[in-house]
Structures are given as structure tokens and as C-alpha cells.
Amino acid sequence: MLMSPPTTKQQSIQTAAVWLSLSNALILKVSTGRSSSVAVLPLVSGPRLHTEQRVNSCPVFRMPFVDLQSNLPASSFSEEFVQKLCNSIAAALGKPQDRMNVVVNPGLTMLIAGSFSPCVMLSVSAIGVTDTAEKNKEHSAKIFEFLTRELSLPEDRIVIQFHALQPHQVGKKGTVMSFL
């Protein structure tokens, strides 16, 4: 059904609207009760928006990658620990757990700050949630709290790298996220 955008608050709360914008995109707005979602679908071929689009704090797409490297033995990283790590970082980033990709590499020869003492280097790569110092400061505090508690490591033996990804940098299903 093609129609004009809702003009009153009452219309926007009770209707689902589809309309064409001047930028050759199909815009779908679904409103129910106190919340609404908007999808923007281009009518031309090519990639979707180059940056993550948020409507009412709902992400269009994101897929975090977590790579933990450590000189701690493999026995320090049970499946239960890996699940807790996944849950903790998903919560810190505001991501659903089923979008997380986690790899743990234990037993490595590692040197941090001139010492071979037990340590962890964690890399977090994601679309749209690791792109500012303010966001990463918040993520870092939550992740450090988890790692120091679970692995009994002091903060100076943990290093976290945050990488901001763009949709065209993540491949899935034989294409890249820009086209999914």
C-alpha cells in the first residue's frame, strides 16, 4: 500500500506506512504502541548505506568479532568461560549473542610491557559500536571488569584493541554485509 507519510501522532502510532521518498528509496515505517521501526530500502542496485543506521536505538546490522590471545594455558578457557566472555562482550556492546563471533587462542608466547607474565590481548571489531573514544571507554570498563574477575589478572596485564569496521569489510554468505 502506497501512501503519504503519517501527518499526525495518532496516525503514526496506529499505522504501518510505506511511501516512496524523493531519493528513490522505499521507506517502511511500522508503529505499534510506544515504539516504531523504520526500514529504508534503496530502489537502485548497489550497496546499502555505508554506515550503520539506527532508528529508535535499533541497529540495522552489526556482527562483532572478538579475538582473545593469551599465554595462559588452554585449561584456563573452558567452553563455559568462552560463553561467559561472549555474553559479557555482547552485553557491553549492546549486541545479541547470536551475532557474536568469538575465538580464544591460549598458550601463546606473549610479551606485554616487557614481561612474559600471564596476560591477555583482546581484539574487538564491530560495525557501528567501536567507532568513538566515548563508546570504547565504556566498553573497555565493562570488558576489563569481566576479564580481571574471571582470569584473576591485574588490569596492567590486559590490553584491548577496538577496531571500527565498515559493512563492506565483512564478508558473509558469498558477499559483504553492504549487500545483505
UniProtKB/TrEMBL annotation:
It is found in: Cytoplasm. Its EC number is 4.1.1.84. GO terms for biological process: melanin biosynthetic process. Pfam families: MIF. It comes from the Eukaryota. The keyword Mitochondrion does not apply. Coiled coil: none annotated. Keywords: Acetylation, Cytoplasm, Lyase, Melanin biosynthesis. GO terms for molecular function: D-dopachrome decarboxylase activity; phenylpyruvate tautomerase activity. It is an enzyme of class 4 (lyase). InterPro entries: Macrophage_inhib_fac, Tautomerase/MIF_sf. The keyword Phosphoprotein does not apply. Homotrimer. Belongs to the MIF family. Tautomerization of D-dopachrome with decarboxylation to give 5,6-dihydroxyindole (DHI). This is D-dopachrome decarboxylase. It comes from Lates calcarifer (Barramundi).
